[in-house]
Amino acid sequence: MKINEYASAVEAILFASGEGVSLDRLCLALETDKQTVLDAIDVIKSRYKKADSGIELIKMEDSFQLTTKSKYADVIRKVFELKRSTPLSQAAFEVLAVVAYNQPVTRAYIEQVRGVDCSGVIASLSQKMLIEECGRLDLPGRPLLYRTTENFLRCFSLESIADLPPIPQNDEDNGQMTIDLEETENAKETVEETAQ
Fold this sequence. Notes:
CATH topology of the largest domain: Arc Repressor Mutant, subunit A
Number of strands: 6
Number of helices: 9
Radius of gyration: 19 Å
Mean pLDDT: 81
Low-confidence stretches: 172-196
Distance between the termini: 39 Å
Helix content: 40-55%
CATH architecture of the largest domain: Orthogonal Bundle
Largest sheet: 3 strands, antiparallel
CATH class of the largest domain: Mainly Alpha
Structural class: alpha+beta
Shape: globular
């Protein structure tokens, strides 16, 4: 098979799947090596760029998915009469940050960091598929562990958790945290548009 045929096959698999497909599964389905699949993925990406398409191919950890470009979210919502998701609260962003930077974590750990009960926020983030249960801690009571999901990576346009921005450091002059407000606002808008 030529690389363009592999690219078309990968594109068909990703389109039919409707969700992320791991590199290993793509290799298995196409009976080829990882480099060939990665080359095919590059061909697909260049096709979409050349055509100025409304679709893009994104990478999340070791998986790939076809998605619509976020700039078309409003027109897609109109066609399918989708309701705009309730925006995330400040508390939800705080819990999400604790989970993202420290995963896997227990609810007790999140509550210790924030100083308040977080069960409702955790349930809300789980419902929006931004975090998920990922096992239990081997301690008395066997508390649940939480981690971020592929949907989290998709919403924040990240390929992996390693792409998270560094944690802001305390400013020595006034003891306040320094944060890029523009990046925070952009992330809020993205999550509001894509989280369901």
